[in-house]
Amino acid sequence: MEEIEIIKPDDWHVHFRDNEILKAVVPETSRHFARSIVMPNLVPPILNAKQAIEYKKRIEKAIPKADSFEPLMTIYLTEETNKNELKTAYKNGAIFAVKLYPAGATTNSDSGVKDIKKVMPVLETMAEIGMPLLIHGEVTDKEIDIFDREKVFIDQKLDFICKKLPELKITLEHITTKEATKYVENGNENLVASITPHHLALNRNALFVKGINPHNYCLPILKRETHREALIKAAISGNRKFFLGTDTAPHLTKDKESDCGCAGVFNATYCVPILTQLFDNKNALSQLENFISRHGALHYKLNINKEKVKIFRSSKKIIFKKFINVNKEKIKIFAPDFPVFWKIIK
Ligand code: NCD
Ligand code: ZN
User: Fold this and answer.
1) Is the four-CA dihedral 118, 191, 243, 227 of positive or negative sign?
2) Least C-beta-crowded within 10 Å: which of 54, 156, 158, 252?
3) How far apart are CA 46 and CA 74, in angstroms?
C-alpha cells in the first residue's frame, strides 16, 4: 500500500450548527483536522463575544476525548456591530475573525449586511488591528443570474473594499469561478481565497444528473467545468493565496429533499481522502500539504501544526458510508462521482 505523510490539516470554514446536529457533526471534523474556523450563522446568529464563548463551550463538549481540536470562533457582521466591542473581543482572543454575509445571500443570512458602506468603520478598525474578514462573496439582487452572483460581487463590492482597505486581511470564501481565482491572484497580498472539496470535485451538471440532485445544491452554486478547472489549477498551484475551507454545511436529509431544499453540502467525513484523490489525479500530491495544512495557517499567522497524518492508497476503491445519524433523522455525506482510493486509518 502506498502511503503519504503530511502535516495535520486545518479546515478554515465549517458549519457546526447547534444541539443534536452539533453533537453528530463535530467529531467528523475533529477526527481529521487540528483547527477550524466556525461559522456564526446559527438561528439567531452569533453576534458578540459572549455568544461566541458560549457556543465554543458547546462545541468543545462535543469533541471526542481522543481528538485535539481547536475551534476558532467568528461573529456575524451586521450594520449594528460595535467596533470597540469587536476590538476588545479580538484582543482577548474570544473572537478570531468576522464573517460578512450580504443579507439574504445564503442559509441563515437574513440579518447580514445590506449596505457595505455602513460597515466600513468596522472594517477600518479590523484593518488596524489585523483582524481577518471572511466574505461570502455573492450579490443578492434578484435580477442577477444565480451563476453570475460571485463575479458581480467581485466587481461591485469586493473591489471597492480592497481598494479602500488594502491592509485588511480578507478571505474570499468558497470561491467558484475563474474570475475569482484571477482577482485573488492579482489582488494585494492580504487578499486570499478558500476553496471547497465539492467545488473542486463537481461542476454544475452534478445538480441534474438523472434528475434533480438536491444534495449537490450549495451556495455559491456549482459552476461550469471551465470554472472547476480554474479552481483545481489554483488549488494545486502552490500559490499561498489558496487554501482549503470545506464549507461543510450539514442539513437533515428531509430538509434537503424538500420542495424548497436547503443549500449546503456535508463533506467533513471524507473530504481529506477526496482531496487527496483529486490531487493524485492531477499528479499534484506534492502540493496537497500546502493546500490543506500550510497556506491557511500562513495567512492567519498561526503556527503550522506539529502533528502529522498518514494517508494510504488502497488497491480497491473505498466504500463510503452514506449517512450519519442524528437521533431518528440522518444527514447525507458528500461523495464525488469518481472513485476514491485514499483513506485515513483512524
Ligand atoms: C451554508 C449553510 O448551510 O449554512 N450553505 C451553503 O450552501 N454553503 C451557508 C454558506 O456558507 O453559504
Ligand atoms: Zn459556509
Assistant:
1) positive
2) 54
3) 8
Please give the span between the terminal C-alpha atoms of the chain, in angstroms, as a whole number. Answer: 16
In order of 57, 98, 208, 318, the CA distances from 74 in angstroms are 14, 5, 34, 35
E-only strand ranges, 201-254:
242-244
Whether the pLDDT of residue 346 is over 70: the answer is no
Ligand 1, atom 11, residue with closest C-alpha:
247
**Cα within 13 Å of Cα(132), Cβ side:** 27
- The pTM score is 0.98
Task: Supply the residues annotated as catalytic.
Answer: 247
Does pLDDT of 183 surpass 80? yes
H helices of the chain, in order, are: 19-30, 49-61, 83-91, 116-129, 149-153, 159-164, 178-186, 197-201, 225-235, 253-256, 271-281, 288-289, 295-299
pLDDT at 105: 83
Q: How confident is the model at residue 111 (pLDDT cuts 50, 70, 90)?
A: confident
State mean pLDDT over 190-206.
98
Q: How far apart are CA 69 and CA 64, in angstroms?
A: 9
* pLDDT tens for each residue of 34-51: 999 999 999 999 999 999
Q: Which amino acid is at 109?
A: S
Q: In this structure, what is the dihedral angle of CA atoms 47, 48, 54, 56, given to the nearest 10 degrees?
A: 80
| 249 CA to centre of ligand 2 in angstroms | 6
Beta carbon of 264 within 6 Å of any ligand 1 atom: yes
pLDDT at residue number 109:
84
